[in-house]
Amino acid sequence: MESFDYIVIGGGSAGSAVAGRLAVDGTRRVCLIEAGGHNNNVWIKTPGFMPFIPEKSNYRYDTVPQKGLNGRTGYQPRGRGLGGSSAINAMVYIRGNRWDYDNWAAEGCTGWSYDDVLPYFKRAEANERGADEYHGASGPLFVSDQTAVNPASHAFVEAAAALQLRTTRDFNGDRQDGFGIYQVTQRNGERWSAARAYVEPIRDQGNVTVRTDTLVEKLVIEDGRVTGVKVRRKGKVETLFARRGVVLSAGTFNTPQILMLSGIGPAAHLKEHGIDVVIDRPAVGSDLQDHIDYVSGWETSSDVPIGSSLKGSLRMVGAMIEHRRKRSGVMTTPYAEAGGFWTVLPDSPAPDVQWHFVPAVLEDHGREKIKAHGFSLHACVLRPESRGTVRLGSPNAAAAPLINPNFLDDERDMACLRAGVRLSHRIAEAPPLQAYGPTDRHPVDLNDDAALDDMIRNRADTVYHPVGTCRMGSDADAVVDPTLKLNGIEGLWVADASVMPKLVSGNTNAPSIMIGERCADFVVAAERG
To answer: In this structure, what are the phi and psi dihedrals at residue 245, rounded to the nearest 5 degrees?
Structure first.
């Protein structure tokens, strides 16, 4: 029966940051538990291998049938193994908008305004451009400019400029709006996951234990306090003890699942599964929000974009050899090379749509292989009004949870996405992209709302940013308080995207790491009294 000062559950974006910061000074015994493996292989480290990442590194969840998507089942990839989703994502470094965090603070998340969180973003960051008012240069998370951008991605930025849409080099500076080439979480041409940033540097310290391939079955709660974690590894069940506390960082889907398996959640739902209720907490697993996304696609007569023609395939073989030798070239692509943020609805307080431009044809999250050159343009609703749930599908911790994002349940989301898709097509019709000879793979009358809406419901899905299922707040119903401590249980913190009260206007990896950084400080502050 092993005992530690702190146990961190989940080695993803936030969990890696929490564990790394708690352990780095060597004064605390920290155990990091991860259900997956080490993720230390060429498929993870090579950015261009992202479409071929092994199944063992991806939970590959599905949603329940979605009414707003004409009854379709959505796909929900989630990282499994050290690094979590930062080990399988597109590496885009985006923090969100200043308004997001100021709104969090205004709605009861004291201490989470933009000015409060900016120092943590900077502390985490090692931006190759150097330090300034908005960026850090000495943190563990490497942020780099892309070195092998496809010409079509540059043409996308030029096409947006042709429509008088602002061009920017920095989406994380004084203004978010505009179009440009994304910075990425890479170092020397390799993916730089949160585990590489925070866990690898401390793994050999005598105060750190990393338990991979270890499934958490439930928290051990005694007299209102978490005292340990019940885990299963290689068929054996054991209990690990935590003298000072537990940080739950299993992600937006698995964090509420673990809480509910431990008796913390909606009482009636827990009883349905024969789970003894420790605390009736209806907000656990509620308030699920995700970026609903529509991908417009064009095949091109040009073979400059990525494609599976003979020429394209030979080019990729050469790129693989170059990357193995020099860590440079086309295999450094994050695929989502360029993008932008813009306001399409008149009453939005900040940009309400984000675009990701991919110089390749994508169908069904890349799972359908297309033998053509071309480009794809994602448009996603940044601050959706629709709300969904995560619920238990079984009292078995190894079973997948029931995921219901409730996509496009609110008509305001459809209005925003409809406008975003129309702007996608205007950009594609501008001369810089027309030079590639594009043919629309899914033509529709853009002036016909009903036809456009039906196409969106038939093809839209997530862009992989679920949050909110253990929301933070100052109200009695909030799952965690503004110090990320779980309300009603001592010695338990939650640190991952599940605590976000509202979805940020952008990709969620960098904000999740920031949340992990902050949680470590909250834990240390509680320790010191």
So the answer is: 165, 175
- Phi and psi for 339 in degrees, rounded to 5? 175, -165
pTM of the model: 0.98
pLDDT at 529 (0 to 100)? 84
Element (H, E) at 42: helix 42-45
Looking at 305-462, list the stretches that DSSP marks H as alpha helix, in order from N- to C-terminal side.
310-326, 411-428, 431-434, 449-459
Compute the residue count for the chain: 529
CATH: 3.30.1330.130, 3.50.50.60, 3.30.450.20, 3.40.630.30. Which one for 1-58+79-111+190-286+466-529?
Answer: 3.50.50.60
Query: Which of 135, 323, 378, 465 does the annotation list as catalytic?
Result: 465
Tell the burial category of 55 from Cβ atoms under 10 Å away from its Cβ (0-12, 13-18, 19+): exposed
Residue 293 to residue 112: CA distance in whole angstroms: 27
Mean pLDDT on 166-193? 98
List the Cα angle 372/378/379 in 5-degree steps: 150
Concatenating the DSSP letter of every residue in 296-344 gives EEEEES-S-S---SHHHHHHHHHHHHHHHHHS-SGGG--S--EEEEE--
Which residues contact residue 399 at a Cβ distance below 8 angstroms, ignoring those fewer than 6 apart? 392, 393
In 3-state terms, what secondary structure has residue 374?
strand
User: Is-catalytic flag, 38?
Assistant: no
- Cα–Cα distance measured from residue 319 to residue 315, given in angstroms and rounded to the nearest whole number: 6
Please report where in the chains the tokens 């209005």 appear, as a residue: 415
Amino acid letter, residue 318: G
First to last CA, the chain: 28
Architecture, CATH, for domain 147-181+292-381+409-459: 2-Layer Sandwich (3.30)
| Cα–Cα dist 507/494, whole Å | 20
pLDDT tens track for 437-466:
999 999 999 999 999 999 999 999 999 999
| Neighbour count for residue 319 (Cβ, 10 Å) | 19
DSSP for residue 199: I
